[in-house]
Write the structure tokens for this entry.
Amino acid sequence: MCGIVGYIGDKKASDVIIKGLKRLEYRGYDSAGIAYQNGELQVKKGKGKVAKLEAMLDPNENATAGIGHTRWATHGEPNDVNSHPHTSTSQKIALVHNGIIENYGSLKKVLQNKGYEFYSETDTEVLAKLIESFLENGENEFKKAVQLALAQVEGTYGLAIIHADHPDIIIAARKGSPLLIGVGKNEMLVASDASAVAEYTDQVVYLEDGELAVIERDNYNVESSDSTSLIKEVHELAMSLDEIEKGGYPYFMLKEIFEQPKAIADCLRGRIDPEKGTVTLGGIADVMEKLAGAKRLVIAACGTSWHSGIVGEYLFESLVKIPVEVEYASELRYKEPLIGEGDVMIVISQSGETADTLAALRQAKENGALVLGVVNVVGSSIARETDAGVYIHAGPEIGVASTKAFTAQVTVLTLIAIMLAQYKKSISDEKAKKLISELALIPEKMQQVLDKSENLREVSNLFSYAPNFLYLGRSVSFPVALEGALKLKEISYIHAEGYPAAEMKHGPIALIDDMMPVVVIAGTNHTNDKMVSNIEEVRARKGRIIAIVTEGNAEVEDLSEFSFSVPDTEDELSPLLTVIPLQILSYNIAVNRGCDVDQPRNLAKSVTVE
């Protein structure tokens, strides 16, 4: 969940690394640090954001090789000592690390018995000194010492390592934590995320688990765990520099909310034909027969992606008539799920690197299930390891609180459900064509919602300091309620819960009083009568009702203290519109409270540790 950047080339390394760390700060911002070769190894680090680190640097140094890190704490609280890079006792080795060394305690005891002293609470410092312990034998070169040390490590890592006596190389290694090499002209980069290298090259090499790379300014060599040299495919990055800049918006989150019409248009482009009423998804075309013959479908995801998976559950059961289970990937791997041949698993992840989702994927494949991926990042681990899949094409998402990825994930799940339903003939041609025609209109309808988003300002201001929120929805609006509550919690730090509206009577109703804002998502026509009843129950207890309704729903509007309407669409597609006001409401409240919207406390964008 942290960010790694390394550089070796002709440029001033610290400039490249600092710029890269700023692009990766959404992955972790507890502390930051840098190590570079300038006659001898120099290390600057400390608690705080990258801007604080930048102020520590000597503007006159001209080192052309170094490594940097921005941290999201796992072992040890955020402070100067626990910041990365960590160094060996001799101060000749410096390394940065993403992941968790699970056996660091036993390794630390062995090293302490040999006389090594430790100053931090981190697992990473153990690794730096473990590498040094092999070098002290006098017979092991730098690369060999790294290999010997990693052979003793249990856990996950993405590593970039430098040595004062080997100023012309960076060693990188991966196991369970993403890492790539940026291939430039007379320069090489290593990073945990492509956004850190996009300014300098569009050519990247993705490291796989167990691989180690020796990187020089004009060359790189990748080896497998048994030291076999590998020929790696060079991939072309799809992202542009403009996509990872704020573009005049105060926050990435706001930019990404307003990018949703374009993101969904890009997601749909070339995949639907409203005139013919067809869906074409090349990524799963070869597995349609297996998919259609599945006994059941299991969707595994975490966080916002789990919410999109619940929308998918409604879609697949309604349109495809197949039993669906939606699982937290973080729990799936520990419950001995009965997943095997004849089952299909869909794993959903914006980054394509979510550790728990990757583990669920691998478990399902080992058990013989067909595994499909719904991811955003091209070339990510999930994209490479699944049997088939569909990219959401939402473009880079930098804000920690996911917005456009959610709507793009829901769009892709809708496309898969329609395509599979047509293949199985479980829906009529008329129904399919209606859904496809409405999907084609969604970007325009999203823009209509955004064009009047200022109408949410008053309600945002009024409830910015409410201690609790309750979100209610039925059918496909229930996961929208969950997502709305999550967005508010993530960025404003207000306690919020999403509930199926009927479940309000089984507990949450006890909390409702005149201080409780209740957000009602009334976006589906077939549940409207029941939602009206739920609203009456809230009103009877003096709850403050904020309703998200489809245009023309006067009954709900009249019962609500505040309401915001979205264009009417098919019930199945309503989450694509009703979630946007909730994103904007959360954003406005967070800004009013003075919160850092893009970098909320204790959170990171890509959860690459368990």
